Amino acid sequence: MTPQFAPVELEKAYRLINHGATALVSAHHAGVDNVMSASWVCGLDFKPAKLTVVIDKIARTRELIEQSGYFVIQVPTVAQLQMTYDLGTRTLRNDPDKLQHCGAELFRMEGHGDLPFVAGCSAWLACKLIPEPHNQQAHDLFIGEIVGAWADTRVFSNGHWHFEDADPSLRSLHYIAGGQFYATGEALNANTDLG
Amino acid sequence: MTPQFAPVELEKAYRLINHGATALVSAHHAGVDNVMSASWVCGLDFKPAKLTVVIDKIARTRELIEQSGYFVIQVPTVAQLQMTYDLGTRTLRNDPDKLQHCGAELFRMEGHGDLPFVAGCSAWLACKLIPEPHNQQAHDLFIGEIVGAWADTRVFSNGHWHFEDADPSLRSLHYIAGGQFYATGEALNANTDLG
After folding, report:
1. B163:A182 CB<8 A
2. Which H helix or E strand runs over B68?
3. Which of A120, B48, B131, B138 is most buried, with most CB under 10 Å away?
4. The complex's ipTM?
5. Cα separation, B39 vs B36, whole angstroms
6. Start-to-end C-alpha separation, chain A
């Protein structure tokens, strides 16, 4: 499902989420894998590379992150629209076969233990939780240090996305509410010469 | 420049930034206005509505926020591509006419004092700083409670964006790095019937 991907330098990993794409959050603990979708994922720092993700107390994935100290943020594609929506509405708490029902297929990455990665995404960021009890309790806000990053080379290489050269089904998703998404659109370039 | 805009319910204000658009952050204190662009703006809560924004210690706008306790997050359009880039690279510290040089025109909103709003954007979120000294110092992370929200009715109404019905120049921007942006693209809808 993910035929070609390559590592991304950690200092450039923020670029994988900088366009504000809807993300999938996955984690594993004690034999349990789970994946949920999350709109509120955001860059936090370049070096060391960090990001934030907001995860409600109701989420089973949150427990797996708190227990294991690790999670993966991944960028799903237009081809994964329905899966992304379903992963955000179904819960492992009352649907033990949630991943199968949503069509999410997992794989492991060498050197990252049992951390579950979702196949078919365009980018993956393996994160180590930086525990911040106040933020987690008061704001449902989790901070992760990015310890590994990879991208599908058909849409991201040399530190930049190049959706415009690839199949539109590989573009990212941007969620609004109620099942409404937008795909990443037209490439635009600002004049970088301050003159 | 902004002929038609209407208030947005605070509980739905997160939808104005949920698609991960690049934002402009503005603030005012003691006669000084400033505006900067920021990619790292993210929803945090629905009710009361809150958001996060990452602002480097070097930014003059950060001082204005810390001094006044208020700021505005706004969503610039494709028509404002160059202005958005320039507002992120020029600084008021060595360019006192930064706003004029970038082509940013400000207006005030009734009931919101001297808070500066950037004309021509598609959405505006007036925010009250929730002071969190640890997050601000350690992570450059600021939390705001959204106390007012408005959107251009040509692209947002009834709680949803409808870029597909409007001029493409009103779409949002999604920044990557080095002057590279993407516009918001195709509208997509997931099947919301869990079946």
Report:
1. yes
2. helix B60-68
3. A120
4. 0.96
5. 10
6. 46
Chain B nearest-CA distance from A131, in A, is 13
The distance of B56 to chain A (nearest Cα, Å) reads 10
All structural domains of chain A, each given as residue ranges with its CATH number in brackets, are 5-183 (2.30.110.10)
Amino acid identity, position B63 = E
pLDDT in tens, A67-116: 999 999 999 999 999 999 999 999 999 999 999 999 999 999 999 999 99
- Residues in B closer than 8 angstroms to A173, CB to CB, are 188
Structure-block tokens of residue B75: 């969503």
List helix spans (H) across A36-145: 60-68, 81-89, 98-102, 133-139
How far does CA A194 lie from the centroid of its chain? 34
User: Amino acid identity, residue A24?
Assistant: L
Closest CA relative to residue A24, chosen from A97, A128, A100, A124: A124
Question: What CA–CA distance (Å, rounded) separates A4 from B87?
Answer: 37
**Beta strand segments in chain A, E:** 5-7, 23-29, 32-38, 41-46, 49-54, 70-75, 106-107, 117-118, 123-130, 141-152, 156-157, 160-161, 173-177, 180-189
Tell me how far CA of residue B149 lies from CA of A128, A181, B78, B106, in angstroms.
Answer: 35, 21, 20, 16
Q: Which residue of A has its CA nearest to B177?
A: A15
Contact A151, A5 (CB under 8 A): yes
| B39 vs A contacts (CB less than 8 Å) | 18, 20, 43
What is the distance, to the nearest Å, from the Cα of residue A100 to the centroid of all Cα atoms in its chain?
19
Model confidence over B142-172: pLDDT tens digits? 999 999 999 999 999 999 999 999 999 999 9
> Least CB-CB distance to A185: which of B143, B176, B184?
B184
Look at B177 and A15 and tell me if their CB atoms are within 8 Å.
Answer: yes
Residue positions counted in chain B? 195
- In 3D space, the residue among B169, B162, B156 whose CA is nearest the CA of residue B120 turns out to be B169
Cα dihedral B90, B95, B97, B99, rounded to 10, equals 20
DSSP state letter for A16: G
Question: Is the Cβ–Cβ distance between A138 and B50 less than 8 Å?
Answer: no
